[in-house]
Amino acid sequence: MGLVLAGLSPKLILLTAAAVLALLSAGETGARGFWGVGMYIIIGSLPIAVPVVIVLTDQDRAPQRLGAWKSWFIQNQGRLLGGGSMLLGLLLTARACLLAQAAA
């Protein structure tokens, strides 16, 4: 299902796989595991939910606002992807360092 929704985009598939592995390797069960998955779903659905809410709440100005956002995202796509990738790399590196320190 996730592959179909991701449109077979390698970038999205790899990010989703990294998130799933991080959640599974955390070993959280019960309520903490539920909240981890819930936060992943909420954050993952924001790119769809925010425009829908804007269209439903402000139909008059929604096309202009969403058009401005679209052009901004297109202009800054490289910076956003680079920053997100850097953040993910830093988080994974910090986690690996903490795990190595705990094992020692």
Describe the structure.
The chain is an all-alpha fold and 104 residues long. It has two domains: 1-57, no CATH class; 61-104. Helices cover 86% and strands 0% of the residues. The longest helix has 28 residues, at 30-57.
Task: Label the overall shape.
Answer: elongated
For the report, how would you describe the main beta sheet?
Answer: none
Q: How large is the count of helical segments?
A: 5
Class of secondary structure makeup:
mainly alpha
Count of domain modules: 2
Distance between the termini: 40 Å
Order of helices and strands: HHHHH
From the alpha-carbon coordinates, what is the Rg to the nearest angstrom?
17 Å
Q: What's the total number of strands?
A: 0
How much of the polypeptide forms β-strand, as a percent range? under 5%
Overall pLDDT: 84
Unreliable runs, pLDDT <50, ≥5 residues?
Answer: none
Helix content: over 70%
